[in-house]
Amino acid sequence: MVSFNESSTIPTLLRNVVENIHPPETTFLIHKKGDEWENISFAQTLAKADAVAAFFLEKGIAKGDRMGLMIENGPDYVYYDQGIQQIGAINVSIYPTLSEQEVEYIINDSGIRAILVGNPFLYKKVLKIAGNCKMLEFIIPVFNDFTKITLPEDLNTAIFSFESVLSDGYSLIKKYQYQITTRRNEVLPKDISSLIYTSGTTGTPKGVMLSHSNFVENVKVCLQQIPVIDKTETFLSFLPLSHVFERTATYHVCCAQGCKIAYAQSLELLAKNMAEVRPTVMSCVPRLLERIHDKAIQSGTSAGGMKSKIFIWALEIGKRYREKMEAGKSPGLVLAAEQFLADKLVFSKIKEKTGGRLKFMISGGAALPKTVGEFFGNLGIKILEGFGLTETSPVMSVTEYHRQVYGTVGRVIPGIEIGIQNVDTKEILNIQTHESFNPEYISEEGEIIVRGHCVMQGYFNKPAETAEAIDKHNWFHTGDIGRFYKGNLQITDRLKNMIVNAYGKNVYPTPVENIYLQSLKIEQIFLIGDKREYLTAIIIPNKEAMTGKFHLSESFFEDPEAFISNPEILNWIKEDIKKLSEGLAKFERIKQFLLKRNPFSMDAGEITPTMKIKRKVVEKIYAAPINELYSSAVESE
After folding, report:
1. Could you tell me the sign of the dihedral formed by the alpha carbons of 265, 212, 612, 520, in that order?
2. Torsions phi, psi of 277, nearest 5?
3. pLDDT of the residue at 258
4. How far is Cα 262 from Cα 275, in angstroms, rounded to an integer?
5. Would you give the distance in Å from CA 404 to the centre of its chain?
6. In the chain, what are the domains?
7. In contact, 368 and 383? CB cutoff 8 Å
């Protein structure tokens, strides 16, 4: 059984599994090796973690030393992380997509002594900057042919393959076994477990200090809130472990509960991997669910005729059935029979593509559009939403399994307080806890603030920034705007995203953008209008839908011109913009737009690793076409 106590830490969670939940030979990790899925037991995982620990003890790694990881999800991440954490070292995971300059900054700011790198591209990136990183002593590639890559002449950093780290470590375990056990027992809940650098839409990345207690308490209360997670689950992991959401919601939950973790090969192979692994639980982001929704709708309706009619009928039946069940009412014999038929004809085929065993998916990282959540509910696929930030370990609220309120991010987790603060006056309008939950309660809107066990220890080496984020009453200011709706937290937008038009009207872009994202023709949308008379937008069209409609070749998307000027394509998008604008206030409607040929990219610095658009960066990059749009535009009805 899961066992939490006052001395629980990340490494003791996994040890508890083999002592109280599963026999050591039970499968823990699953990954694809060649064409076959390989099972790795808890015993094998712990043995490799001990080898990593022994190797680094031999190299003089001390408690509190920072150890880097820049690697894709997989078993090697777990071996390294468990090995360093049990000797009191600190995990500093770096997004593989960051630039050389950003990686160099993080290595130097945190003082990383060793870094695990996942592939030749990342290895070359680290080699280029290693000479500027004076505290970096060891580079550890996980791939075998790293010796073929030419080293810089001025490199003073030692290089060991991860394979040699494990083999040398195995030979040292006997020598260091007592010290490994002693060091593991000396790790305290208050000690820092990880530094996670915020990607940030503006400013320099900050190292968020999260303790073992931050993580353990977050896992404990999430399992209380979602008690249906048991030791038989298989999680499919594809979101980056360098981000706190996947780290907690998948990796740490599985370490505590004894669940299996299967690692997807890539985002491109995710659909294939889902069918092969047949997961019961997955953490995901709204964009993935939006894409599944869009493809399902397009597939179900594009053929027209009887197939389309059956699909639309099934969704209506699913909606009526869901609403009855959520209201605690009996669906009745007729509706139950119709639901059975709808599931057999339509829903089961969609579920098969997920492997057919999903209990639920956990959506985080951004607010999920209400219509998308309802769509999955109509199919009988439960989507639980959570909310939090890197600075909150991350979960502050999460949907209860038995009580769904679409368009919200769930109930406050046990042990913390969430307040809503007036943005202008700074008055705290109300405070909610897990215990104060009232399914009828609706609050005013304001900035979301939080205090309690989930809040970080602070920003590494940045006391001024820490004091700015956490006030004298220990409230952490999230910068998110929201309210409580039917007792659940509801996110409106980011405080920094707020657009104030030339007439003083406040517009939070996310809810407006979500209205327009209901169009199957639109992939991404970025609202513009701060200090302007009206709103405009940069829109990225749905590539698949546009290609099919206008029979475009790949060369169309390779055109160096950033924006599409084809009148037919522009009018095609305008049709949906005009239709969807009808449900918005006049000052919230898009008057003109630019149609961007390709999505915003991380390479261009337009989005963060967590897929948030960098508002100021995008407005600066495209300042000329945006200004031209305003200067030449004539308001359209």
Report:
1. positive
2. -80, -35
3. 97
4. 12
5. 21
6. 10-187 (3.40.50.12780), 284-356+358-496 (3.40.50.12780), 498-632 (3.30.300.30)
7. yes
Query: Residue 587: beta bridge partners?
Result: none
Give the total residue count for the chain: 637
CA pair distance 90, 230, nearest whole angstrom: 29
Q: Is 324 left (phi over 0), alpha (psi -120 to 50) or beta?
A: alpha
Contact 406, 370 (CB under 8 A): yes
pLDDT at position 496, please?
79
Q: What is the pTM of this model?
A: 0.86
pLDDT (0 to 100) of residue 635: 42
Angle at 184 between CA 178 and CA 189, to 5 degrees: 160
Other beta carbons within 10 Å of 174 = 9
Q: How many CA atoms lie within 13 A of 428 on its CB side?
A: 15
Nearest residue to 157 (alpha-carbon basis) of 138, 172, 183: 138
- Closest residue by Cα to residue 271 from 287, 254, 292, 243: 292
Check if the beta carbon of residue 108 is closer than 8 Å to that of residue 133. yes
| Bridge partner list, 387 | 397
pLDDT for position 97: 84
Place of tokens 């000329």: 624
Nearest Cα to 218, choosing from 13, 414, 20? 414
Mean pLDDT by 10 residues, the chain (637 residues): 86 95 98 96 98 98 98 97 98 92 95 97 96 97 93 93 98 98 97 89 82 98 95 96 95 97 94 96 91 89 90 96 92 96 95 93 88 94 94 96 92 98 94 97 96 97 95 96 96 84 82 91 93 93 94 94 96 96 91 95 81 85 93 54
Query: Of 253, 250, 282, which is closest to residue 362 (Cα–Cα)?
Result: 282
Which residue stretches of 153-227 are H helix? 162-186, 212-225
What one-character DSSP code corresponds to residue 234? E
Q: What is the pLDDT of residue 634?
A: 45
Give dist(CA 444, CA 185) in Å, integer. Answer: 47
> How far is the first Cα of the chain from the last one, in angstroms, to the nearest whole number?
63
Q: Is the peptide bond before 609 cis (omega within 30 degrees of 0)?
A: no
Look up residue 629 and give its two tokens: 């749009």
How far apart, in whole angstroms, are the C-alpha atoms of residue 600 and residue 614? 10
Q: Show the beta-strand stretches assigned E in 486-577.
A: 488-494, 499-500, 506-507, 522-528, 535-541
Helices in 226-331 by DSSP H: which ranges? 244-246, 253-257, 270-277, 286-301, 305-326
**Distance separating alpha carbons of residues 399 and 401, to the nearest angstrom:** 6
Per the CB < 8 A criterion, the answer to whether 473 and 392 are in contact is: no
